[in-house]
From TrEMBL:
Enzyme Commission number: 2.7.8.7
Organism domain of life: Bacteria
Binding site for Mg(2+): D8, E50
Lineage: Bacteria, Bacillati, Actinomycetota, Actinomycetes, Streptosporangiales
Listed name of the protein: Holo-[acyl-carrier-protein] synthase
Species for this entry: Streptosporangium vulgare
Length: 116
């Protein structure tokens, strides 16, 4: 059963400018493993974090660091949720996450499905 769905779109040039203007933002948005990636990949991961919040119903107290996109088998993106995101997901009965990322033509898009 689908518990929630989230989608988000990020303009990569605007995102890059934001990171350049506020360098400390990188540490507030991304885990150590994510932070070394290029701008387009970071924009897609930021979109995934926003999509996780939407899939959970945007509860208060979520942090961007509570959702991490990691590479699974054969490079497939997978979500790891911790903290408040894991707490809310557990209360909603989320047993599995599905995530799809893409970036092309100056935009990054992420789809997230929370499955119970």
């Amino acid at each position: 059963m689908i518990v929630g769905i989230g989608v988000d779109v990020v303009d990569t040039a605007r995102f890059e400018a934001t990171l350049a203007r506020t360098p400390a933002l990188r540490g507030r948005l991304f885990t150590e493993g994510e932070s070394t990636l290029g701008t387009a990949s970071l924009a897609a991961r930021f979109a995934a974090k926003e999509a996780v919040a939407k899939a959970l119903g945007a509860p208060p107290g979520l942090r961007h660091l509570d959702a991490e996109v990691v590479s699974g088998e054969h490079g497939r993106p997978e979500l790891r949720v911790t903290g408040r995101a894991a707490e809310v997901a557990g209360a909603l009965g989320v047993a599995r996450w599905h995530v799809s990322l893409t970036h092309d033509g100056g935009v990054a898009i992420a789809y997230v499905i929370a499955e119970g």
